[in-house]
Structure formats: structure tokens, C-alpha cells
Design a protein that fits this description.
Blueprint (H helix, E strand, L loop, with lengths): L2 E5 L4 E5 L4 E6 L5 E7 L4 H4 L36 E5 L8 E9 L2 E8 L4 E10 L2 E10 L3 E6 L2 E4 L7 E6 L7 E6 L3 E7 L11 E5 L9 E7 L5 E7 L5 E7 L6 E3 L5 E2 L3 E7 L1 H17 L10 E3 L1 H4 L5 H14 L3 E4 L29 H9 L3 E6 L3 E2 L4 H5 L19 E2 L5 H18 L3 E4 L19 H19 L4 E4 L17 E3 L6 H11 L8 E5 L13 H8 L3 E4 L8 H23 L1 E6 L6 E8 L2 E8 L21 E4 L5 E3 H6 L12 E10 L2
The structure holds (2R,3S,4R,5S)-2-(hydroxymethyl)piperidine-3,4,5-triol.
Length: 696
């Protein structure tokens, strides 16, 4: 049972989660100080840990440094600052004074004020199953510059060593997993681009260097934010490591004052035992149970026209694709870029969100009706935050974009960023999106965002830097409003592939586009990194054509399907050109994907063998009575005999039927010795094994 207790004698709060304990106290100066994060402890025993601050070792070294729950700079605090303030008279830094606290079931709020200035700081802690969500609120009666406001600082216990797990990437190569020893000093992962970004993703996991996929303690921290962000791991000579994180970036301050509070996004923390596998499964459960808007649903098999047609779309051609897609068993047909304004390439038309009448002479209705008539849902691509300078919108409103006077307006992909922090711009976007969805019966929006911010100015506004936060908040508000007004609407978040994947957008998007790289081999690695934190049920994955347009590689169709159906299956190839054999195989594999998707989308993921070499990669999902094993061999060497694949997550006391082979296996044997996969011979061999628990 989760719960929160206040040990008044020790001025200590003990927060007990499903399988972990977190504790903090007020130190002698009222500073909120960390006490414990780790395995479950009896709350009353935590008092033992809640001693006084230790005296400084000498004039330079403070053994308590890095223990602050939100490391405010100032005085003799030299840790990586998580809270930096400048008051109107020039005074810097906060001096904490405890005010009061509230416990509302699983939610603790501790209120502080500054010792002199009329500024209030509230620290929030809220259990969501095994995950502790934290955030900070600031408010003030006079204007205060907030140079930095992290959501929280997380203090790790003193371990023998520290290792960081995180992902890096770039366009078409997102979420590449790294596990590296934590450097002494500060290691920062960040985006200064106004979007979550391809180059890093706002989470980090920490272990002592010995955790494996199946064993060991893992501490994880993830930020729910889709704009610029920063996570800093600080490792000091006192032997401590902290991770502090929040929105924003250096040199961009927030302002609070009368009527202008600041609430940071949630940063979530999770302690698990059982290795990286257990950590990922716990994160997936959290996202499914507490983040995703409709976790109980199964995501439909979609078709997306982008790789088939590029910008060259027409009603006739989309209708033909839709007919083909429906015949394959597709359930959601998505028309991508190129249907509006003068958008016949990436040079023009963004911002002019009216149907291109040359391409769709009678508007969108005939296509939408045809798609619905084929028994599919209809989805459409939009990129609301962007404008091409060559557009009627930009010609009418050149001031709507992020810009500074006397500075160039840097174009990327021939486009500029609209300033959604402006209420007139956000209202305009709501107007056309609401009409697009409402008037045409649109069931699904693919919401794209194809460039980072630059020259992020807002001439004439008294506090232009607020756009960095308010743009993202306006995007969230717009998504939330559309969803509320159109309850059947579902969303896919996309930013030039996987540039907008985070816990913030997943609270309002049903799925995310993982990468523009659809090469099945590269996808194994991208999906491996994605799945460290995010669940397969939100991971959009398409089967596209050979040779792959990013890598030039050709991969057998079966292999491509088997990789994509380990997430939310989509088809993105030019199916009009597929030979009958391929279409027949696609029909069969789409039926298979539908059969196994409750297990994939709602089940627990076990990474049996990661895609780190050219041997066999395997993963397994388990849900209720069923298990599905995916195995992929990219290259066969030396006619090596196949090794049994040890499974996980099964009941050793039960028997499992292989639904395709008709054989039954003891759960204990599958766990202890493994399953003979029977992969076909040769390169690019893949197999899906479906197991179901049967009476003994
Ligand atoms: C980038 C996306 O990642 C692609 O899937 C496609 O929608 C293009 N944008 C369209 O411009």
C-alpha cells in the first residue's frame, strides 16, 4: 500500500510506494534535505536515518552537499543549481523557511517561503503506483526572475560506483542506448531546440555498474516535457550522485510575480530491483496506467501514405491506396503531407490549411467517405506549429513567427516556427484544426513538427522568453481541447520522426512516430532504445518498401512485418505496386499482428537478447495467459547450430501450447532451458511464436 507519513519529532516525511521508500526531512535551517530513496523500509525505521546535518569537514568540504531536495544556490551551496532566483533589488538566491505541509492520500505538498521576500515555493510528491512524481510551484507578490527552476533534484544513495543509461541519436537514428560510467563532475543531457529532440531523450537510469537485464537495482528519472529541457547528473568527490532535471535552458529565465505563478512539469522517479528489464516493465506499466489517454484501447493497424507518395497526393491515388489497404486488413488510413494549400513540396503552403482543390476537387469529403465506407478510420497529417514563408498565412502575418528585429529568420526545411505562446496564433490554430476534425469526421491526427526553434524572439512582449515554456503549454492545451471536444479523436505525435517522444506528449498522444528510419534492422536498435522507458503500445512502426529510402537496404517482407508488429503495426509502402505474393503475405501477417496485439500492446516486455550483434535478437511479451516471442537473425555465420532461447515471465507450474506448432511445453522447461525457436535458415530469418497457457 502506498502511503505518506510525517514523523513530526524528526521533521521527516516518509513516502511509501508499491515497492520503494522515499524520505526527506527539514534540516536545522528549514532546507528540505534528502534522507532515503531505495527499497521499502518500515516508516518508523526511517527515523534512524534522519539525523542532523554533519559538520563541514574543513573550510572547503561539506559532507551534506548535494542532499537538497531542490538544490537552491546561494550562501555556501555550490552544487549544480536546481533553483536560482534574482529578486527585484538584485538579491540572489532563496533562503528556505518552512510554512506547512498537506498530505492528500498519495500526494504530499510542502510549502515554503523565502525568509525575507514574498516568494512561495511548494514541493510536490505524488505516488502513481511505484513511480514518484515530483514538481515545483513558485509564486510571488513582487516580480522575481527565476534563472533556473528544475522540477526536482533526485539524490541517489552512495553506491560503489555509478553508471548512467540514456539514449542519444539524430534524425533517422533516434534512441540509441548507451550505458556509460558516470563521469566525475557534471554530465548534462539537454535539448535547447524548443522540442524534446532527436539528440537525447529526457530520461536517465542509474545503477552501480553491475546491473544486468535481469538483476540489480536501477534508479530512473524521466521528465514529462516536450520543449527544451535539461537533466544533469552530478557526481562529487563526497561520493554522491544526484540527477536534477526540468524544463528550460541556460540564459532563458522565467518570471514570477503577482498573478504569474510558475509550475514546472512533472519529473518522475522510479526505483526497481530486477535489472533493466524490470525497470523498463515498471516504466511501461506507469505509462499505460497513468500517462496514456486511452491505455485500455488497442491501437489499430494503420496505413500511412508518406513513403508511397511523398508530396504528390491526389484524391484518386489516395482512394486506390485506401482500397488496397482495406483489403489487407488495415483499420486506419492516414493521408500524410501534401493535401492542402500550395503544398506540392516542402517549399510552400504550410500554414494554408485549406484543401488543395486541384488535388481534391470536391474537398476531403469524398475521400473520407470512401475510407469510412471501406470500414476504416480516417487520419490526416498536420503540422500546426509551422509556416512556410511562401504561404498566404505568412504574407498576412509575418509577425506570427518566432523572430528578433534586425536578425535573419533562419529557415530549416524552408519553414519558420509560429509563436504558439501568442493567444491569437493558438486560437487560429484551434479554429482550423477544430473545423478540420469536426467538419470532415477526422478520426486521427498525425501531429508533426519538423524543425527546432531559432531566433526565438517575440518583439513587443514584455517577457518574451516565456514563449519557450508557453509554446509547449499551448500545444498541450490545444491537443487537450481538441480531444475534449472530439472524444473519438486519436493523436500521433511526430517531430521529423522521433523528435517528440516524452511523458508529456504521451499524456495526450495515443502513439508516437518513432523514427523516419523504417529499415527493419536499424529499427531493432531504435526500438530497443525506445522501449527502455516507453511501451510498445504507443510505438508506431511501419513496414515500408525495399530498398529502404533512408538506408538503401533490402529486407524480406516477413522480417519487416515481424519487426514492426513488435510495436503498433503500420504499413507505409507503396502497396499499389506490391506483387500479389507480397499482398497475400501482408494479409496473413496483418491478421497475425491483430491476433497478438493484446499481448504486445498491453503485455510485459522481456528483452531476451538485445540487438547488439549480428546474432539472434529476441524479445517476448507476456499478457494474462498468452506469450509472444519474436526472434530475428540478421546474418547466419558458420552454420552455427541454434541455441534454445530461455523465456521469461511464464508460470513454471503451467504448460504452454505453441499455437502454430501444436506442441506443448512445461513453463519450467521454457524458463530453465528454453524454447527451440526453429528459425528458418539463412540471413534475415525471423519468427513469431505464440504461446498460450493450457490446463496441465
Ligand atoms: C516528417 C515525418 O516524420 C514523416 O513521417 C512525414 O510525415 C513528413 N514529415 C511529412 O512532411
Amino acid at each position: 500500500m502506498a502511503g505518506i507519513r510525517y514523523l513530526a519529532d524528526h521533521r521527516t516525511w516518509v513516502l511509501t510506494g508499491e515497492s520503494s521508500t522515499y524520505a526527506l526531512r527539514l534540516d536545522e535551517d528549514d532546507v528540505p534535505a534528502h534522507v532515503f530513496w531505495g527499497p521499502k523500509l518500515p516508516p518508523e525505521d526511517v527515523a534512524e536515518l534522519s539525523g542532523k546535518a554533519l559538520p563541514w569537514w574543513d573550510g572547503f568540504n561539506d559532507p551534506n552537499e548535494g542532499l537538497d531536495e531542490l538544490a537552491a544556490d546561494g550562501g555556501t551551496k555550490y552544487w549544480t543549481p536546481a533553483l536560482q532566483l534574482r529578486f527585484a533589488d538584485g538579491t540572489r538566491a532563496l533562503e528556505w523557511r518552512y510554512a506547512t505541509h498537506e498530505i492528500d492520500r498519495d500526494h504530499l505538498t510542502i510549502h515554503f517561503t523565502d525568509r525575507h521576500y514574498p516568494l512561495r515555493v511548494s514541493l510536490h510528491y505524488r505516488w502513481k503506483s511505484g513511480v514518484l512524481e515530483r514538481w515545483t510551484e513558485l509564486s510571488a507578490d513582487t516580480d522575481v526572475e527565476v534563472v533556473r527552476a528544475d522540477s526536482a533534484s533526485w539524490v541517489l544513495p552512495v553506491l560503489d560506483d555509478y553508471r548512467l543509461s540514456h539514449v542519444t541519436g539524430r534524425w533517422a537514428a533516434e534512441t540509441q542506448l548507451h550505458r556509460t560510467p558516470a563521469a566525475h563532475g557534471e554530465t548534462t543531457f539537454a535539448s535547447r531546440r524548443g522540442i524534446t529532440g532527436h539528440h537525447a531523450n529526457p530520461w536517465v537510469m542509474v545503477d552501480d555498474g553491475t546491473a544486468t537485464e535481469r538483476h540489480g537495482e536501477v534508479y530512473g528519472v524521466a521528465l514529462a516535457w516536450s520543449g527544451s529541457w535539461r537533466l544533469t547528473a552530478t557526481r562529487s568527490s563526497t561520493g554522491r550522485l544526484t540527477v536534477s532535471g526540468g524544463f528550460g535552458q541556460e540564459g532563458v529565465a522565467h518570471r514570477v510575480g503577482p498573478g504569474k505563478p510558475l509550475t514546472t512539469p512533472v519529473i518522475a522517479g522510479l526505483y526497481t530491483e530486477g535489472g533493466f528489464g524490470a525497470a523498463s516493465r515498471a516504466w511501461h506499466a506507469y505509462v499505460r496506467e497513468h500517462v496514456l489517454p486511452h491505455p485500455q484501447e488497442l491501437r489499430p493497424v494503420l496505413y500511412n501514405s508518406w513513403e508511397a507518395t511523398g508530396f504528390d497526393v491526389s484524391e484518386e491515388q489516395q482512394r486506390i491506396l485506401a482500397e488496397r489497404a482495406a483489403a489487407l486488413g488495415v483499420e486506419l488510413f492516414v493521408m500524410d503531407d501534401g493535401w492542402f494549400g500550395a503544398r506540392t513540396g516542402d517549399h510552400a503552403g504550410l500554414g494554408d490549411w485549406h484543401v488543395n482543390r486541384h488535388r481534391f476537387p470536391d474537398g476531403l469529403e469524398p475521400l473520407v467517405d470512401a475510407v469510412h465506407g471501406l470500414g476504416m478510420k480516417f487520419g490526416i497529417w498536420v503540422e500546426p506549429e509551422m509556416v512556410n514563408p511562401d504561404s498566404d498565412l505568412y504574407r498576412a502575418h509575418p509577425d506570427w513567427v518566432l523572430h528578433h528585429p534586425h536578425r535573419r529568420r533562419s529557415e530549416l526545411r524552408n519553414q519558420l516556427v509560429l509563436n504558439f505562446a501568442r493567444t491569437d496564433v493558438a486560437e487560429w490554430a484551434h479554429g482550423w484544426l477544430d473545423r478540420l476534425v469536426g467538419d470532415h469526421g477526422v478520426d486521427f491526427l498525425k501531429w508533426d513538427m519538423n524543425r527546432p526553434f531559432s531566433e526565438a524572439g517575440w518583439p513587443g512582449d514584455a517577457d518574451p522568453d516565456r514563449l519557450w515554456v508557453e509554446h509547449t503549454r499551448a500545444v498541450y492545451a490545444l491537443m487537450d481541447r481538441l480531444r475534449a471536444d472530439h472524444p473519438g479523436l486519436r493523436l500521433e505525435a511526430c517531430s521529423g520522426g522521433g523528435g517528440r517522444i516524452d511523458l508529456g506528449v504521451l499524456a495526450r498522444a495515443d502513439q508516437v512516430w518513432t523514427s523516419d528510419n523504417t529499415d527493419a534492422l536499424d529499427r531493432l536498435r531504435i526500438q530497443h532504445g525506445y522501449g527502455q522507458l516507453y511501451p510498445a503500445g504507443a510505438m508506431s512502426a511501419w513496414v515500408t518498401d525495399n530498398p529502404n529510402f533512408v538506408t538503401g537496404r533490402s529486407v524480406p517482407l516477413r522480417f519487416r512485418f515481424h519487426v514492426a508488429m513488435a510495436g503498433v503495426l503500420g504499413v507505409g509502402g507503396n502497396i499499389v505496386g506490391w506483387p500479389e505474393d507480397d499482398l497475400a503475405l501482408a494479409r496473413e501477417l496483418i491478421a497475425l499482428a491483430k491476433d497478438i496485439r493484446p499481448v504486445v500492446q498491453h503485455g510485459a516486455l522481456y528483452r531476451l537478447r538485445p540487438p547488439v550483434d549480428d546474432g539472434v535478437t529476441a524479445l517476448q511479451y507476456v499478457h494474462e495467459d498468452r506469450a509472444v516471442v519474436f526472434a530475428y537473425r540478421q546474418a547466419a555465420h558458420f552454420n552455427a547450430p541454434e541455441r534454445p532461447m530461455r523465456l521469461e515471465g511464464l508460470d513454471p507450474a503451467e504448460r504452454y501450447l505453441d499455437l502454430d506448432a501444436g506442441t506443448t511445453h512445461s513453463g519450467a522447461v521454457l524458463l530453465a532451458r528454453g524454447l527451440a525457436l526453429g528459425l528458418p535458415t539463412g540471413d534475415f530469418a525471423s519468427k513469431v511464436v505464440r504461446l498460450e497457457r493450457v490446463p496441465r
